[in-house]
Amino acid sequence: MQPLIPDYLSGVLRDCGGDRSGALADYIPELAHVEPERFGMALATVDGAVYCAGDSDIEFTAQSISKPFAYALALEDLGLDEVLAKIDVEPSGDPFNDLSLEAGTGRPLNPMINAGALATHALLERGGSVGARVDRVIAGLSAFAGRQLSVDETVYESELQTAYRNRALANMLRSLDNFEVEPLDVVRGYTRQCAVQVTTRDLAMMAATLANGGVQPATGEQVISRSVVRQVLSVMTTCGMYDSAGDWLSTVGIPAKSGVSGGLLGVLPGQSGIATFSPRLDKHGNSVRGVLAFQQCSDELGLHLMEVAPATRTVVRDQREITADGEVVEVFELHGTIQFAGAERLVRSLVEDAPKISHVVFDLTEVYAMNTVAGSMLRRSARILVSEGRRVTFVDPANIAAATPDGGPLRVVDTLEDVLAG
Ligand code: GLN
What is the distance between the alpha carbons of residues 111 and 136, in angstroms, rounded to a whole number? Predict the structure, then answer.
């Protein structure tokens, strides 16, 4: 069979490759030397498949794409409250290098602009030494990518020599007591963080790790916890594309992060990570062809987050009566993924049918996921039914509902036959 997905990605590169508009970032002198025609794309799924096209294995520096990952590490190490005390989560609508600080507290508005990223870097290892902070961020970025990454020393030196604006930002933050460590050290560490070399394939894997609840799909390592993923993706959604975040969210609709070297990554929660590399940038500092490629994929593959799938009305696949031991048993056979809306539908049919039911069976054999709220709604419904004098049985071989039998009217069994067996 023809490799469907790589062919598709190559087609996207062909469709978008003709656009030669935009310009290389030249405020970091070394970035002006890259080959502007480079164009690569990669897609990594949460179960570890990776598809690539074009220049997907060429290394370039991550730049601002390192920011959400450094933020994730800070959250993982210090917890949300400590991080929020230093860096807010409001979109600034300003360019990436703007000095956007909250009036009064002096907190940077979000961790995706440089001010917020400098403050984030300063938090790593609880302020620790320059070396410890840099080690933490490089090891962390490597864990997301699933391979050891290293710093491009030439780009690092080149940026550091001209990093006047970032020095100004760091000095300003220090003067407002956002951090206590030496501002120039923070600029050095942050600049090394930005100079970590990645390929488009690496970026797709890093994005897929976020898509996969923090578990790196290839290595299986839980790099960050689920609650951190939620926070990071929220901030990427509102702030990842700087002053074009609103336009990006409405047209592409994928939490994303761009960098001035031309990389761009997007996260489809629960599905995959996508990345592109093409160095010419638009006026917001986002890759011109990367934005086009994401727009095309979002349209053609239906990836926009707000494009809601038709509601699953069939959480209860089958509701039927069976007779076991001479008793009439009502079986609710559920299937698929059960979340709040699905559980609500089930609870509604329970209430409607309750008067005539003396023994309820929840058959969860075909359910493959149930979120916390759905699980607790199901367990509470079971307890209410029991308190009303009815029997309740869960057919739940994978223990999805985490219902515990009470030795009385609540039972948990593996198969429907067990119910019939009494
Ligand atoms: N290192 C760059 C800077 O601080 C990163 C900016 C970016 O990629 N948008 O200016």
Answer: 17
State the Cα–Cα distance between residues 409 and 411, nearest whole angstrom.
6
Distance from chain centroid for Cα 259: 17
- Kindly give, in sequence order, each residue whose CB lies less than 8 Å from that of residue 404, ignoring residues fewer than 6 positions away: 410, 412
Q: Where do we find the tokens 């929020």? A: 84
290-328 pLDDT, tens digit each: 999 999 999 998 899 988 766 656 688 888 888 777 778
Pocket test of ligand 1: the residue of 31, 67, 97, 281 to mutate, having most ligand atoms within 8 Å of its CB, is 97
**Of the candidates 84, 62, 218, 250, which has an alpha carbon nearest to the alpha carbon of residue 151?**
62
260 catalytic per annotation = yes
Tokens of residue 200, six digits: 């488009």
Which pTM was predicted?
A: 0.88
Residue type at position 374: A
Annotated active-site residue in 242, 257, 315, 419: 242
**Per-residue pLDDT reduced to its tens digit, 342-392:** 888 888 888 888 778 889 999 999 998 898 889 999 999 999 999 988 999
- List the Cα angle 124/127/128 in 5-degree steps: 95
Let me know if 190 is a catalytic residue.
yes
For ligand 1, atom 6: residue with the closest CA: 64
In terms of phi and psi (left: phi > 0; alpha: psi -120 to 50; beta: otherwise), the region of 354 is alpha
